[in-house]
Design brief:
The chain is an alpha+beta fold and 148 residues long. It has a single domain, classed as Roll (Thiol Ester Dehydrase, Chain A), CATH 3.10.129.10. 28% of the residues lie in helices and 39% in strands. The protein contains four helices and six strands. It has helices spanning 4-13, 15-20, 51-70, 136-140, and strands spanning 23-28, 31-37, 75-86, 95-105, 109-117, 123-135. A six-stranded antiparallel β-sheet has the order 1-2-4-5-6-3. Strand 5 (109-117) and strand 6 (123-135) form a beta hairpin. It is globular, with a radius of gyration of 15 Å. GO terms for molecular function: fatty acyl-CoA hydrolase activity.
Amino acid sequence: MIDEKVMELYKASNNFGAFLEMDLEVLNEGEVKYTLNIKEKHLATPIAAHGGVVAGLIDGTLGVAALSIAGKNNKVVSTVELHVNYLKPVVLDDQLVAIGKVISAGKSLIYVEASVTNQNDVLVAKASGTFNAYPAEKAFEHYKGPQK
């Protein structure tokens, strides 16, 4: 069962995801979906999104999939390794869907894979990542709630 407290703390404190305007849906334990509509603020050229935006979407997707497992033990995760393959350009007005799924979970290391498609179901990126699980109180000991 997913620990809702850890997930809610993550959602409330994830300023980067809010900045990118990513929308999260937990599909199952160990499997999540993030969506992101590409806007002008995401562009590196007049038409193409910055690779860092796609990498941010992927890192969030992989990380929350890992968190949905680690949170059961009152743990959060941090990225240890991230590998991204950009397969097609991401352009203005693309509607991206990233699906992340935990492949292997140990006591402290969690390996996750993800794919990103656009509104035409074209695969635009594939990724994998390794995450370190550690006690949630270390991450949230200084958290003061939403910042305005």
